Amino acid sequence: MPNAQCPMPNAQCPITMKILVLNAGSSSQKSCFYELNDTLPDRPPQPLWEAKIDWTHREGAGELQVTTAAGHRFEEEIASDSRAGAIARMLETLWQGETQVINSLNEIDIVGHRVAPIHNPINLEGIEAIEKILGNVPQVAVFDTAFHSQLPPAAFVYPGPYEWLEEGIRRYGFHGISHQYCARRAAEILNRDSADLRLISCHLGNGCSLAAVRDGLSVDTTMGFTPLDGLMMGSRSGAIDPGIIIHLLRRSHFTAEELDNILNRNSGLKGISGVSSDMRLVAEAIANGNSRAQLALDIYIHRLRAGIGAMLASLGGLDALIFTAGVGENSAAVRAAVCEVFGFIGLRLDGEKNLNSPIDDDVAAVDSAVRVLVIHTQEDWEIARECWDISRR
Ligand code: ADP
Q: Is 205's C-beta closer than 6 angstroms to any atom of ligand 1?
């Protein structure tokens, strides 16, 4: 925070801001720590300290891993499945031991949390844990839906009964922190003003979504009321005929939990291939002649192309197509298969450049009418940036 004790007029004070970011998932708790000066760096800086607690290793225990920019590492099993206790232990490594980067937790000026409706209870646990440990430090909830808050009604209202809208059943969109970061990074890479760019951002990780971005705003997106809508994903189906649900309810009397489990955890690449939700393992199975894995990839590409086509129509043109997250950043084959069909709008990949999966670079051919960018998404940095912005208002 601006240094309250600084005797000099504010403009001359050396201002640093120490920002802690918490990113809670259902099976992990990630955190990182940045120290910023009074001007934001051009490029996302490396966090001084990063930590992750993984609860998938052993029942009732968390695996804590900490790394620092100075190259120190620390690992420990936390014998507690309480999020608050685990967060407290994780934060001790910020100011104690080999991974220490500050002298006391009081130095933390602001804490930013990634907040997403599916994780609301664990986000709240994190916010309460910080309140307990750090007292009344300012905390910022950065909503993963916020970037899509200006969607036009035609894009966010579902064509069910009008009452749905009054009950809050509408498209919210997700991956907003990632799409927002990528849209701004794209403008920087292209050296253009984001106010006159039409972009399609493809976030292809375990979850997958597209955003159509015009003038820096999201104008259409594929995820909806929940992250289950839209593209085929690692283990989620994406959009399916809602009549299938009615059919399954009538025929097999599934419970809501069973349907949730099928559509969120046993569909998508995993459901069709029977191999895995991990694209690398699906690709390996295809190489070994597995036809279900091939079908899974074919559906994934088919739906991705269709989704991009829909975003293209919402934008009425395209300056750049962005690929980000695990699959988007690493799979040259997925990028090539998607781009192949968009030759009719003058989009042409540089095949060799694409194969190298360069980070934060343009992999379109020189004469392509549309740029194709591979961007390493940095959601934690985007959250830190929001904290920095808010504290300056
Ligand atoms: P999340 O959505 O959970 O943040 P990530 O963005 O880390 O996930 O993406 C995870 C997915 O990225 C993995 O499941 C895997 O399918 C894919 N992935 C990672 N590396 C590669 C690679 N080299 N080639 C293809 N896919 C990859």
A: yes
